[in-house]
Design a protein that fits this description.
- Helices cover 29% and strands 24% of the residues.
- It is of the alpha+beta class.
- Strands 3-5-1-12-9-10-11 form a seven-stranded mixed sheet, sandwiched between helices. It has a five-stranded mixed sheet with strand order 7-15-14-13-8.
- Helix 10 runs parallel beside helix 18 (720-741).
């Protein structure tokens, strides 16, 4: 059967791309309203110090300066909020330190905001900032989270008496100890999940406006969901009714989780606009991004796996140290909590004990970054199971096969309460091994050895939780000219929402994609929305779009039936018209819209009660040059179970992009602070990102088993590449270095220098 032109499964090219690649995208920095002033933030140059300011009046008097805000000028603003306060293992809620919009007496990381200067242009604002004298009284600094927990370590928040931000957990410690007591073998590992800087193409920017007549504010900013940003700014910082704030999000050049959050510049621009009666614009610079926007990952984890004499898992112990930075960012405590809820991976683990300890240090705060805890969990269990396969002699595939949750046991509830609904875990592993020619690896390894290179192959069999319980309201409206508009509260950051949503609407309404407009990113036009994050937009948004489209079609057919003197069941929507099947009697959608007493619209919100669980296998094969430490990826195979494929072109883009980020983390990205808390990798001159020429051609396939949780069987795919990628690369590298030079362990990022040093150390 030929594929449908539109609808689920159609390989439609992105309708968004024509504008974006020809320079017609409209981003926040492209918006400069008439009379707009420009802002600059004076930031701390020290990682930990008491501060006092002088010469502020000179800055205020500087020609062209309209406003200078310091902490005492905005004492009516509430601190930046932490929205995820989790119950600890002992049942108590953890403490939350205050994070002021502008620091008044103490700074706690390089980049902490001290003053906000508004002027006729950015250069004038910068010149005025140089007039402000910041008197720093240095305080001791700690940047290493393990050292931060040592006795006598510098306390970031002395009033708490510890650098432990919280201690969260999952599982049953007593049951797990009993399981370990019966173990025939225990495998242990310690892994570092390196700190990452998002480095989306578009740095953050915002424009604040205030209308004195209505008393309403407008914020234009690149977000991952305007409704969430509106509520945080209005309720938690400005202390106003959210109805008084409109958030507009134009095109967004990448988000990766980091643009979910509200940052200090947003309320500052709004306050400045209200006080000055003029729009105020702030645009960040790349180096500011490194020291202000939330970082990702940064865990140190130890784990033990108890096995019986047949290599089957009896129990699992995990202890995670999760860097929080100097403050608890907006959702920071939730990241290690939700991540460790996926600790068991694809395996049948009945006894589990996990602790996740948040740790303060004088560094930029961390929060969600693509995958948000789930990549960290998958990386740990897959490095651990790989090591167990080596130690027991079962090998990579057999130890996994023996411990997978069998398909006939699904749905299966894990020891952390996650309910896996469908899947065939051994099935996608076997398929990936076949495509990657796993059986032929030994011969290829010999060929590499013959030319002095180390060759390795490694896999990662992952599962993640995404599209968390809830829904996303969708409204599909028929316009007077016969076009259709979708209003929905997700937020595209480059994923292709207009194409994915549009292809489903097009199938129901009988329209081409160019006749369908998708409106996101305007809290005045869209009633409500959950934003984009956790791979939720298509799994939660598309079922609602689908049902709203059906609802609109029913209304259209009811009106058309009277005009065409036919039953609704005899009508079809084709090429912008409603016609009687098998005849030439028809009426255009524009005519239907004109005849309707009010705007015809379908509005639906399909909700789901459980998360979805994408899963799959990544296999990486690579070579190492032992003389230079260079790593070359030779082959990369991905076989994923995404439940249902909505658009194979969009899907491949998501998987390729996520996997590229994982490879970049595994081999390149390294965030380095010195002992004084200075970020040494504070620009793209020092912080390496993967380049296109370093990436392999991905062999990507799906082996889908539809979800029973989701109304359309979709499981989600936006984060999957980052979840499966790191462990496959590092397991391959570990095999190459272990077989070639006897290297026992290597951590991310496996830069050439680190690989070279590991080889030299192993050789003695």
């Amino acid at each position: 059967m030929a594929p449908s032109k539109f609808g689920i499964g159609a390989p439609i090219r992105r309708k968004e791309d024509a504008a974006l690649v020809t320079g017609h995208g409209r981003y926040t920095d492209d918006y400069t309203p008439e009379g707009c002033l420009h802002a600059y933030v004076l930031r701390s140059s020290m990682a930990h110090a008491r501060i006092s300011l002088s010469n502020v009046e000179a800055a205020r008097d500087h020609p062209g300066v309209a406003l200078v805000l310091t902490a005492e000028d905005i004492d009516d603003l509430k601190p930046m909020p932490t929205k995820a306060v989790m119950p600890q293992i002992d049942g108590t809620p953890h403490k939350v330190p205050p994070r002021p919009v502008l620091c008044g007496d103490t700074v706690r990381h390089v980049g902490d905001a001290i003053a906000f200067i508004v002027a006729k242009d950015v250069n004038t604002a910068k010149s005025a900032a140089e007039l402000i004298e910041v008197d720093y009284e240095p305080l001791p600094v700690v940047v290493d989270i393990e050292k931060a927990l040592e006795p006598g370590a510098t306390l970031i928040w002395p009033e708490f008496g510890t650098n432990k931000a919280f201690v969260l957990g999952h599982g049953d410690a007593a049951k797990t100890e009993a399981a370990f007591a019966k173990a025939a073998h225990v495998t242990s590992i310690r892994v570092v999940n390196n700190r990452l800087v998002s480095n989306y193409m578009e740095v953050r920017a915002c424009v604040g406006e205030y209308d004195e007549d209505s008393g309403r504010y407008t914020l234009t900013a690149g977000t991952q969901g305007g409704h969430g940003a509106r509520d945080v700014i209005a309720k938690d910082i400005l202390d106003i009714d959210p109805a008084r704030l409109r958030v507009i999000t134009p095109d967004v050049g990448g988000g990766f989780g980091t643009k979910i959050f509200v940052y200090r510049e947003y309320p500052l621009c709004l306050v400045a606009a209200q006080r000055l009666g003029k729009p105020v614009k702030w645009t960040g610079e790349r180096m500011e991004h490194f020291v202000t926007d939330a970082h990702g990952r940064d865990n140190v984890t130890t784990a033990e796996l108890a096995l019986d004499s047949d290599g089957r898992i009896l129990g699992l112990k995990i202890d995670v140290l999760a860097a929080m930075g100097a403050y608890l960012h907006q959702y920071a405590p939730f990241i290690p909590f939700v991540g460790t809820s996926m600790s068991t991976g694809l395996y049948d683990v009945s006894a589990l004990a996990v602790t996740a300890t948040g740790v303060y240090a004088n560094t930029v705060p961390t929060d969600a970054y693509r995958g948000a805890g789930r990549p960290e969990a998958a990386y740990l269990i897959e490095r651990l199971i790989e090591k167990a396969g080596l130690e027991t002699g079962l090998g990579s595939a057999e130890i996994r096969r023996r411990n997978f949750v069998a398909s006939d046991r699904l749905p299966y509830t894990t020891a952390t309460g996650r309910m896996y609904d469908t899947g065939d875990f051994a099935g996608h592993m076997d398929k990936a091994m076949e495509v990657a020619d796993w059986a032929g690896f030994a011969e290829r390894q010999k060929q590499s050895a013959a030319v002095g290179r180390y060759r390795g192959i490694g896999m990662c069999c992952y599962i993640e939780a995404c599209a968390f319980p809830g829904g996303e309201e969708a409204t599909v409206e028929l316009n007077g000219d016969g076009t259709v508009t979708l209003l929905i509260g997700t937020q595209t950051n480059g994923q292709g929402h207009a194409t994915a949503y549009g292809q489903v609407i097009a199938e129901h309404l009988g329209l081409d994609l160019d006749r369908i407009e998708v409106i996101q990113g305007d809290t005045d036009r869209v009633r409500k929305g959950g934003g984009t994050g956790g791979s939720r937009s298509i799994p939660l948004g598309l079922p609602s779009v689908n049902e709203a489209s059906k609802s609109l079609v029913r209304k259209i057919k009811e009106l058309a039936a009277d005009r065409l003197e036919a039953g609704p069941e005899d009508l079809e929507l084709v090429d912008g018209s409603v016609r009687v099947v098998g005849t030439d009697r028809q009426v255009t959608l524009a005519e239907i819209a004109a005849a309707a007493p009010e705007t015809l619209a379908g509005r639906e919100e399909v909700k789901q009660a459980e998360a979805t669980y994408p899963n799959g296998t990544h296999i990486c094969e690579l070579e190492v040059d032992p003389d230079t430490g260079d790593v070359e990826i030779l082959n990369y195979v991905i076989v994923d179970d995404f439940g249902v494929t909505v658009n194979p072109i969009l899907l491949a883009g998501q998987v390729h992009g996520g996997t590229a980020q994982a490879i970049s983390q595994a081999l390149c990205e390294r965030t380095v602070y010195d002992e004084e808390g200075q970020l040494l990798t504070a620009s793209l001159l020092d912080y390496q990102l993967i380049r296109a020429e370093d990436l392999p051609d991905f062999n990507f396939q799906t082996r889908n088993v539809p979800s029973t949780t989701n109304a359309l069987g979709i499981k989600g795919a936006g984060e999957a590449g980052t979840i499966g990628g790191c462990a496959s690369v590092m397991n391959a590298l570990q095999k190459a270095l272990g077989d070639g030079a006897g290297v026992g362990h290597i951590d991310m990022p496996a830069t050439p220098l680190r690989v070279w040093e590991a080889i030299r150390a192993a050789r003695g």
